[in-house]
Amino acid sequence: MTIKENENRDNNSTSWQSGIRYIEEKNQSKLLKIGIIVFLSVLSSLVGGFIGSQSVLTKYSHIINSYNEAPRRNEQVVATSLKGNITKVAQAVGPSIVGISKKHTNWMMEASGGSLGSGIIFDERGYIVTNQHIVDGLKDITVILSGEKRVDATIVGEDYKSDIAVLKIDVDNLKAADFGNSDLMKAGETVIGMGNPLGEEFAGSLTVGVISATNKLIKVDYRSFRIYQTDMAFTKGNSGGAVINDAGNVIGIINNKLSTSEGGSFFMPINDAKPIIDALVKHGKLETPFLGVRTILIDEERAKSYKVPTGLGVVEVVEGTTAEKFGIQRGDIILSIDDSRISKTTDIKDLLEEKKPGDKIKVRVYRDEKEMDINTTLIKRRNT
Prior knowledge:
Residues 280-369 form the PDZ domain. By secondary structure, this protein is α+β, with helices and mostly antiparallel strands.
């Protein structure tokens, strides 16, 4: 190979390499430009998106904030409202809730004697309602008013069957509680319990809960009670205190004696207590209805022996009563009252518990191998 050929080959090689370098440099330049353009585009999109999102957030921030904060705000409002309402109820009804204790005759009794129970001032003239079992057998009673003022009290009247008693104190400017309508209360509604547990230093103590059940019938010591149940836990000292609705009205009287071993707490609906309270204030004793007859049980053995139906045999018709007036006779067998079958002596007692003096009833009797209906009127019989 000649020198000239070598030079031409070197020149050709140089031109080829230069072309490659030129293409590479050109491509790198183009890629750089493309990269810059893409970067700027992405950057522009990001900036635009951020600005746009900020604009949206700014525009609808009140809606977003409202959505995020609403649940907590509502919970706070409910809690604050309930707390505020309880405070108002406590302030309004608290002065009407009193403690009931034995009268202290010396310092030793004062040191050892706590509250026997609670009571409710229902009349500004000084009338207080409580449970009968709290004051049963007591002669000297002390009432502890709001502010720990102690005053003597007397028993106006008491009724063992309903476990209600009315006391009287001679004090001016008393705050009386308002009675509500217990028939309007339903299971699940919030109620407040106020009493005087464990002594006057805890006067006005309250508990908040709900009504668990209404119109339950229970029997205690052979007595029938229609009661409401609550999830609140009542102590002995709460007995005689008030169950209050959210409007600040008394809708029940706490009765700890009726509480069960399962933890149920009960109170007497105020609508059932009102007529008893009124009767005790007016007469000192509850006027109970009386049919006007004395009876014995005609059980299955007697009925089979004398070939008569079972029921209550009339052994005496009290002179001057409506039973005598309307034709019930000695020797009649009472089969039913107002279509409710009589099969034991307590049946007639339970039926009359739901009545009052002056109520008209239908008595079905068996006489001379025939059945007949006699319409009569119940009369008053005071407790002895």
